[in-house]
Amino acid sequence: MRPIRPLALLLGLLVAVGPAGAAEVVLRLHHFLPPPSTAHSKLLKPWAERIEQASGGRIEVQIYPAMQLGGKPPQLYDQVREGVVDVVWTLTGYTPGRFPISEVFELPFMAASAKATSQAAWAFYERYMREEFRGVHPLLIHVHAPGQFHLRDRLVRRLEDLQGLKIRTPTRAMRDGLAALGATPVGMPVPQVPQALARGVIDGALLPYEVTRPLKVHELVCCHTEVGGARGLYTAVFLLAMNRQRYEALPPDLRRVIDEHSGMALAREAGEMWDRAEAPGREAARMRGNRIHALPPEEVARWEAATRPVVRAWVERMNAMGLDGEAMLREARALIERYSR
């Protein structure tokens, strides 16, 4: 029998135990925005690094931006639900009507700052939306800062200026809101907006300033109309979610790591981040020489009145589901007010 050489023994041991420092758990995180975006660079990448550090290297989070693992943005929720990927960050409005309860925060003139509304959304989730997201394990629910109009070749100064304009909308609530304002809503994921603007498929888009820089939207439009006040025209709800079976299969101590870096504290952090990201996006538009118009309060009041039927329709949908729509609307507003203090 030939003796086992020391080098062969060492190589065998390395194969048995794996490379030094290899993670026990590798989580693939998939999302739809490019690496320069706030979501990737300021939220998801630091979050992944904290998870890895807190787990002592036992969890590795691999991030795949810009749909690198395939599919289209509206498919992200099903990708994580079915275990195609382990974690996703997505916009719930990309699948209109699938998450009707969460739409309360997307209603016209509902949102305050991203920080306040994100915390309100997480608190509301804990009471009302667990069943709605039962197919996954939510880690974070948050919103962006109130969005504005970014217009290809004309400035909107009053309600009548919107008549017939084709405006990109991210959610069902603002699809109905734009229709109530007289515009023609066009639903599309945000990565498609630059090409749609460049080709004239749309006349403008509803977006927060934050995302206009990484997508270079400010270079494709001439004008921006801002709808200010205590409550913004709209926001959109984002979801960071993990495959439920993948989460439940983790050892208890690693589940605690995930839990300690999820929830309300992360919602507050994300909201603050999106609020801060508005100013650089607006400044990029200003420096380019784009025209920026803030609607006066009396004009904002006209827009709010025109969109009230959209809010009433949401309440009626909740009532039809056997829920108390009025009470839920009051609570969502109260939570936003509470976290705005």
TrEMBL record:
> Which controlled-vocabulary keywords does the entry list?
Signal
Say if the entry is tagged with keyword Lipoprotein.
no
**Which parts pass through the membrane?**
none
The name on file for this protein is: TRAP-type C4-dicarboxylate transport system substrate-binding protein
Q: Which domain of life does the protein's organism represent?
A: Bacteria
In its UniProt entry, the species of origin is given as: Inmirania thermothiophila
Any GO BP annotation: transmembrane transport
- What span is annotated as the signal peptide, if there is one? 1-22
